[in-house]
Amino acid sequence: QLAQAFVDQPTLSPNNPTENQTVFVNIRIGVCDSFIEQTGYPQITQSGNAIRILIPSIHAFDSSFCNFGTGIAIDSIGAYPPGSYTVQVDRTYTAVGPTRTVVDTLGVLAFTVAAAPAPAVLPTNGFIGLLALFAAILLIAVSVLRRRQRDRNAADV
Fold first, then answer.
1. In the chain, what is the straight-line distance between the N-terminal and C-terminal CA atoms, in Å?
2. Does the structure show a pLDDT above 50 at 1?
């Protein structure tokens, strides 16, 4: 059953983040390995454009305890301004005999955050847009005045 134990290479989503869009680390895990919730984790640190996430996990050394199932662990690492970044994904677990804390690097991933698309400019913000708006108001006003004049002429008859 130990052959079913695995922790796959982490991936990031979305593939092409834009500024202020949250970036997630996704890791597929298997039978003898699992990630756990633990107070103070995940630990996310950043130094310049280098980000590190440390995720608590369990690793079963005895196949009798390999009953975690398979799944995908997803953790948010944050939202970033435009630029190029790397994220080092580490996991930590306690090994037995002798008891010690182990930290494994699962991968170092590079990603680029693009600037958010510029907001659409409404046509009324430019000179031509304002001119078109003025012409539309003028046409509406002329048609309303003509209709009123027609109604007055019809009432006089």
1. 100
2. no
